[in-house]
Amino acid sequence: MAEHLIRLEVNANTGERVMAQKSNMRVLIPCKVQPGMFESEYAVELQDGPARISLFADKSLVRERGDSFFLEVYLVPANGEASERTVLLPTESFETGSRWLKVPPANLVAA
């Protein structure tokens, strides 16, 4: 199976970035989890620099490795910035209302 990265295009009408192609370039980022509202989900907390963001995610997207938990996300191709990478979250965060998150490359783990 070939891996494809997410390609972003600019919508000519709105100027917004939109995903042009689905990706199977999955990576994991560290998280904390608690039970969600439903049995099939977790309440996930991610560290975003000094801030924390939270979202609900399906349990199938959370991996446990030892004492640590990781959320499966999609990696967006780098556009020259080595200090941070953009990932696409499975759902919008409550704090930002966005699915996009910038993370240090050191926080990315192969899925």
Question: What can you see in these coordinates?
Answer:
The protein is mainly beta. It has one domain. It is built from no helices and ten strands. The strands form two sheets. Strands 3, 4, 5, 6, 7, 8, 9 and 10 form an eight-stranded antiparallel beta sheet that branches. Strands 1-2 form a two-stranded antiparallel sheet. The protein is globular.
Secondary-structure blueprint:
Layout: E1 8-10, E2 17-19, E3 26-35, E4 41-48, E5 51-58, E6 62-65, E7 68-75, E8 85-88, E9 100-103, E10 109-110
Antiparallel strand pairs: 1-2, 3-4, 3-7, 3-10, 4-5, 6-7, 7-8, 8-9
Give the domain tally: 1
State the helix count: 0
Q: Any idea what the radius of gyration is?
A: 14 Å
Helix content: under 10%
Question: Could you give a quick summary of the protein structure above?
Answer:
The protein is mostly beta strands and 111 residues long. 0% of the residues lie in helices and 49% in strands.
List keywords for this structure.
mainly beta, 8-stranded antiparallel sheet, two-stranded antiparallel ribbon, globular, 111 residues
